[in-house]
Write a structure and sequence with these properties.
Keywords: ATP-binding, Ligase, Nucleotide-binding. This protein has 22 helices and 30 strands. The protein is α/β, with parallel strands linked by helices. Bound molecules: adenosine-5'-monophosphate-propyl ester.
Length: 685
Amino acid sequence: MASASGDQATRLYHPNPELQKNAHVKSIEDYKKLYDQSINEPEVFWSKIAEQFYFKTPPTEGKFLEYNFNVNDGPVFVKWFQGATTNVCYNVLDRHVENGLGDRIAFYWEGNDPDDSSKVTYGQLLKGVCKFANVLKQHGVKKGDRVAIYMPMIPELVIAMLACARIGAMHSIVFGGFSSDSLSGRMLDAKSSILITADGVYRGTKLVNLKQISDEAVTLCKKQDFTVEKVFVVRHLGSAEASSNGDRSSPVAKRPCYSLTTDFHEGRDVWWHDVMEGASDKCEPVWLDAEDPLFMLYTSGSTGTPKGVVHSQMGYLLYAATTFKYSFDHHKDDIYWCTADIGWITGHTYVCYGPMANGATSVMFEGAPLYPDESRCWQIVDKYNVSILYTAPTLIRTLMKYGEAPVKKYSRKSLRVLATVGEPINPEAWLFYYNVIGDARCSISDTFWQTETGGHTLTPLPGATPMKPGSATFPFFGIAPAVVNEKGEELEGVCEGYLVFKQPWPGVMRTVYGDHERYESTYFRQFPGYYKTGDGCKRDEDGYYWITGRIDDMFNVSGHLLSTAEIESSLIEHSKIAEAAAVAYPHPTKGEACYAFVTLIEGAEFNDKLILELKKQVRSKIGPFAAPEVIHNAPGLPKTRSGKIMRRVLRKIAVNDHDLGDVSTMADSTVVDILFENRPKELRA
Ligand code: PRX
C-alpha cells in the first residue's frame, strides 16, 4: 500500500504536459482569465456557453440573471435566462441526433456479470424516450407531476428520467439501496402517484428485490391515505424472451433467467415491455420555461426529514454540461465512466445530464466493484478503453486493501483523467489513485460539490491546475467562495472557517420541494447574503481550498450524506430505546461511519440481540448503508444544562480521546466516566 510519506503528500503535482497540450484549459493563467470573466461578466461568459443549446424562444434581453441571496431583503430566489423556453431532453438527445450523431454510443452498459453487456446509441435512446414519454402521457402524467423512480443502473432508468423531462414532469429518483420506508416517505412528500421500478437487480451476489420493496412502499403510502395509481415494472431479471421485447435487445438473452416471483396487482402494475410495445417513437417535447423545475432529489437534512432539492431546467443543464466538459477535460473521443449510481446527485449530473449534454460516450455499470473479483474495475477500464474515471474515495480505499496486484493485472493505459467526489480524499488514497491506478500519468480532479449545487463547485481542471493531494483546489467558473467566521465575517488569506458562496451560479438549487422556508433557513439564514455549504474549510498560503468536513449534524458514510437526527429517530422507534445520539466516527474505508449511543428504558437489557435488532431497524427504516457500525450502551448522555446533547463530547468518547475540551456547560459530568467505561469491548483492544 502506498504510504503518504510527508514529501509525497505535500508536494505539488503538475499536470502531465501530454494531457495539457490538448486540454480545453491549458494553464493556470488561462483558468484565471476564464474564471475572472465568469465572475465579473457572468452574462458574457454563460451566454456564450448557452449558444450550443436549443431555445424554443430566446431569453428576454436584460433578464439574464435576477436573484436575492439575502434573507433580510425578502424571499431568496435565483432566476437565470428568464423568458427563454427550452427542453432539457431535447438538448441532450434530439440536438445530437439532428447533428448527425444518432449512431454514437451513449452508453456501454456493463451488467453485474462480466459477460452481460449491451450498448445503446443516442438515436436508440431518443426512440425509447419518446415511446415512454407517450406511455406516461397515456397514463395521465403531465407537466409538473412528480414521478418516483426506483431502479437499478440500466438504460431504462435513463429512458424513464428523460421521458419525464420531455413532458415536463419532475422525476424524483430514489436510490435502489433505500428501504421501503424511505421510498414511501419520499413518495408521500412529493405526492408521487406514479412509480417506475424493475423486478430486481443483483449487486455482486446479493439480490435486491426492488418490486417487493416497491410493493411495501405502496402499502405504506396507502396507510397514509395516499394512493399510488400506477407502477411500471421493467423486467430486468425475468425471462430473456420478455426482456427482449424492450428497447434493449440482444445481451439480455445471456443473463441467467432468475426465477424471481413478482406479485402483480391488476390495474395498478404494468410491465414496461407491454406498454412500450405499441407506443409511438415520436413525441413532441413540452417547451418549458428556463426556470421550470426539472427534477427533485432528496438529500438528508439535519432536522431528520430529507429535503427534496429542486433543480431548474436551463441553469442546471448549462452547469452540468459545463462542469462535465471542463472538470474532466472531456473530448469527443473520450470514453467516460462514472461509478456512481444515478440515484445520487453524482449520477444525475455526471452519468446522465452532463455527459449527454456533451454527446459523450459513457460506461454504465450496474454491478459491484469487487464482483466477481477485486480487479473488476480495471477489467472494465481495459474492456472499453476508459479514458476518464470518476469515483469516490471510499472505493479507492477499499481497493487499496487488496494492494497493487489486482490493479496491475490490467493495463489501464487508456486512462487520462481520474476524478473523485463525495468526501475529502485522504492523501494516502489520493497517492494510490495517482501513482498506482493512474501510473503517475493522469490528472486527478477532486471535485467538491453537493446535491444542492447541481454540479462541481471547487475542482482542479486536468490540464491547468497543479494538484495538492487532498485539496479540491480552486473554484469552478461562476463560483465565488468565501471563508467566514462564526459571525459571518469574511476571512482573508490563510484561514479556516465556514465555506460559503457569494453569488449564484446556474446550477444552484432553487427551492426545497414544498418548503421554501426550509430552503431559506438551511442555506441562507445563518449568513445573510451567502449560500452556506455546511462544510468547514481551510485556505492555505497558495489560495488552495481544503474541505475539512461537515460542521452541522451531518456525516458522510462512503460518500453518502446522512443526518444524525435521521438515524436517531429510527433507533428511538425501537421499544427498548429511551434516547439515542448518533455521531460520526472515523472508518478506514468508509471515511466516516455511524457510532450510536443508546439509552435503554428502565429494565431493558443491553445485549448482542438488541444490538442486532437496532442495526436491523436502521437498515429497514433508512437503508443498509446507514446501519450504525457501533452501538454503545449509554445509561446517560452528556448534556448541557438546557438539555442539548453534547455531540462534541460523544465524538471524543467514540474515539477514546479523554481530552474533552471545555465541559463547563455540562449538566452532569459523571456520565462521561461511565461512557468511557462502557466502550464496546471490540473497540477496547
Ligand atoms: O461534505 C461535503 C461532501 O459531501 C457533501 C455533499 O453530499 P451530497 O449532497 O450527498 O453530494 C455528494 C456528491 C456531490 C458535501 O457537503 N463532499 C462532496 N464532495 C467532496 C466532499 N467533501 C470533500 N471533498 C469533496 N470532493
